[in-house]
Amino acid sequence: MEARVMPEVQKRQVFFLCVFLGMSWASTEPLRYFVAEETERETFLANLANDLGLGVGELSARGSRVISDENIRFLLFKPLTGDLLLNEKLDREELCGPREPCVLPFQLLLEKPFQIFRAELWVRDINDHSPVFLDRETTLKILESTTPGATFLLESAQDSDVGINNLRNYTISSNAYFHINVRDSGEGNVYPELVLDAVLDREKVSELNLTLTALDGGSPPRSGTALIRILVLDINDNIPEFAQSLYKVQVTEDSPVGSLVVAVSARDLDTGTNGEIVYAFFYATEVILKTFRINSTSGKLYLKAELNYEAIQTYTLTIQAKDGGGLSGKCTVVVHVTDINDNPPELLMSSLTSPIAENSPETVVAVFRIRDRDSGNNAKMVCSIQDHLPFVLKPSVQNFYTLVTERPLDRESQAEYNITITVTDLGTPRLKTQHNITVTVSDVNDNAPAFSQTTYTLRVRENNSPALHIGSVSATDRDSGANAQVTYSLLPPADPQLPLASLVSINADNGQLFALRSLDYEALQAFEFGVRAADRGSPALSSQARVRVLVLDDNDNAPFVLYPPQNGSAPCTELVPRAAEAGYLVTKVVAVDGDSGQNAWLSYQLLKATEPGLFGVWAHNGEVRTARLLSERDAVKHRLVVLVRDNGEPPRSASVTLHVLLVDGFSQPYLPLPEVAAAEARADPLTVYLVVALASVSSLFLFSVLVFVAVRLCRRSRAASAGRCSGPEGHFPGHLVDVSGAGTLSQSYQYEVCLRGGSGTSEFKFLKPIIPNLQFQSTRKEVEEYPSFQNDLGF
């Protein structure tokens, strides 16, 4: 048999319906394609691209595919070429049964943008089934008194084919008594009647065997046969008669098995066995025999199996009532099955897109179709999803729906949606079906990394080891995947003089900061730099934070004594008059510490002294003062060792040696200490000679000036000088003398000199600086504070 495939487009002009985005359309009339059953697999049916006026590449680019309601994969579609092929051999009788025409609907679905084209595959019947009699042998009992022209209904043959290939004619084998009359039921079916042509004579022919042949309309025709066995009986002149020739009854499809459908009744006027009636199905089909049963005595018809309105809506039964003499009567029972809402709606998912990129505009998430196998209001449906979801259902043609996003989605707010699609029919009671889908939202790099702080303050102690971990910065990204992977880097410093690259480094993966070298608080107390956190998205997003590093002081500097100077030169000698009272300020030790805070808090302590208890050191300011009154028994020369200590942990210290010389007055010649003399003796001879020569010349010059000034002043104003230098000793003119002092008088000062009159030793009466130096103010103050010392000096 050669397959015949005939594509046909019923209407060239189609009308389009916009379902969403102004881009989705569906034609009002479906495309129709025809194929004969049993056609070989991969037979070419049509080119959909040509039939729809679309380019070949357009079908592939728009994500086209073929779907069907029953999910029967009878078609094979190639999007690249647009060819529609047969995927398997089709059996029309298996797919559609007796229904004619046999139509298999399918749809061509285009996703980008969404568009549906309806189409139908009409499966044409071929004559591949022969007529079949359920009973291969039938026995008829006919009275010999039956008049010619009487008719006898015979069993109809069954043919699974339809249309012209269905049952069309009956014939009977050649004989002298009967012929076949073919009747039409009005529903497209034919049945045979046996017609008596001549009077039967039981004494001549008691039994006849005839062959009944059923022929279909195929080319060539197929046939089936059954044996008709006719028994000629004696006269039984009353046949059973039914109260009604036609019974119509309605039965709901949920009627239980065993329930009564209808009760038929017939009567026979004969008596005895000729009046006993037996009820039975007359040549019932296999479906009827499986669904119903009849009580042969009472004529009650019962359900033998469950009814299903969606499968069969009407049953037509022929019931025969036969008496004991072999005569029979017949009636027809038509059972109409009424629908109940026993089928929940169905949801057929055509496509589902997940994940959905966040921030995308209105996007088609799912395409599906709903259906209900019931009828009437039981088949009407409504479709809905939960409230408060950013999705909306949009109806399309043929009960198709699209689930689309109502607004752009934000993955950071919600990364996954569980959507329940609920389909409810309008029957009583209402039935519903729920279909759950999960839609995930894929990430887009729309969030920059965010630091946990805008400013970080780190503290590191100086003298740290290189590569020391000093702290961390942390940034998080609300995105996911590579968009959330954060890398850290240092920003160029705002101060170009800051060597940031040699100070710190950062781990690009975790933001840990390391000091590259040892830091020195005294050189750098603090520095600031910027840190960038960037993700690995495309394009990459970043943010910045400031980091301030405070270097903490360590006690790594010992105190340094500024005064007395420690430069390796000859030590300074401090002069103290023997008349000084307790608390007399001898000198002040001045020291500094390069550290800070408590590491720079200095305290002073007298470590060693020639005579303990004579001098004391104030712990907080380093002032060296006399602890008691001086006496003649106290040694002239004193050596004091002062310890300067900071408050660090552990503490550091420095010491300084002071030389103190007790004098009767400031006019007493300076006596070098033995240590000083020894040091001078060990000095370079040339230096000694130069110093001696310079001192001699200076002394001579100074002496000459003093003499000259003294003589001049005495001659001019002897009377004027009496106010200053008065006393029984006489009057001497005052004059100014420049003195280069040592010890606490480390600078040159001018003094007004008054000599005691009549003194052969020229002893000073007092010394009074005319222009005091700032460093000498403390000594002068001490002198002024003690009246006894002023009296001794002549103040």
UniProtKB/TrEMBL annotation:
Source organism superkingdom: Eukaryota
GO term, biological process aspect, one: homophilic cell adhesion via plasma membrane adhesion molecules
Pfam families xref list: Cadherin (PF00028), Cadherin_2 (PF08266), Cadherin_C_2 (PF16492)
Protein name: Protocadherin beta-7
PANTHER family for the chain: CADHERIN-87A (PTHR24028), PROTOCADHERIN BETA-7 (PTHR24028:SF69)
Gene Ontology CC annotation, any one: plasma membrane
Membrane topology: Single-pass membrane protein
Chief subcellular location: membrane
GO MF annotations in UniProt: calcium ion binding
Claim: Transmembrane is one of the keywords in the record: yes
Keyword field: Calcium, Cell adhesion, Glycoprotein, Membrane, Repeat, Signal, Transmembrane, Transmembrane helix
Domain spans labelled Cadherin: 134-242, 243-347, 348-451, 452-561, 576-676
Database matches in SUPFAM superfamilies: Cadherin-like
Bilayer-crossing regions: 688-711
Locations listed in the record: Membrane
Keyword Transmembrane: yes
